[in-house]
Specification:
125 residues; mainly beta; 5-stranded antiparallel β-sheet; 10 strands
C-alpha cells in the first residue's frame, strides 16, 4: 500500500528509531509539567495501535516515574526522546510522538498548544 500523503514519519537523529502514523496530528502540545518542560517535547497524541514504532535492537530505553502509567522512550544512541507510551498496552493505551522528531516541513503549520500539566491541568489557550 502506498503511503498516504497525510501520514507522518518521525525519526530520532541517528535514525535507529522511527515512528509512523497514518494521519498527521491536528495539533502539537507542549506541557508545563516537570518532565515535559525539561524534555522540551511537543506531543502528537494517538491511540497505541495507530502508530508503528520501528527500532533497531537495544535502541530504546524507557524512563518511568510518578504514577508509573506511561514510559518515556529515548534512543540509546543519539539520546533523542522519540515518544511516550502507556505502560498498559490495552485498548485505552495511548502513544504520543514527540513532534520535535518530525521534519520541519511536516511540523510546519501544525498549531502548537500549551497544556498546563504543572498546575491547572488545562490548556492555556
Ligand atoms: Zn537515535
Amino acid at each position: 500500500m502506498a503511503e498516504a500523503n497525510s501520514g507522518v514519519t518521525a525519526s530520532c537523529h541517528c535514525g535507529a528509531v522511527t515512528l509512523k502514523a497514518a494521519a498527521a496530528p491536528a495539533t502539537l502540545t507542549q506541557c508545563t509539567c516537570s518532565i515535559c518542560r525539561r524534555y522540551g517535547a511537543q506531543w502528537a497524541y494517538y491511540s497505541l495501535g495507530d502508530v508503528q514504532v520501528a527500532a533497531e535492537p537495544d535502541a530504546l530505553s524507557a524512563y518511568v516515574w510518578g504514577e508509573r502509567e506511561i514510559e518515556f522512550l529515548h534512543c540509546t544512541r543519539c539520546g533523542c526522546l522519540t515518544h511516550y507510551e502507556s505502560i498498559k498496552k490495552d485498548a485505552d493505551g495511548r502513544i504520543a510522538i514527540n513532534g520535535r522528531m518530525l521534519a520541519p516541513e511536516a511540523a510546519a503549520g501544525i498549531p502548537l498548544r500549551t497544556f498546563d500539566g504543572a498546575k491547572t491541568w488545562k490548556y492555556l489557550d
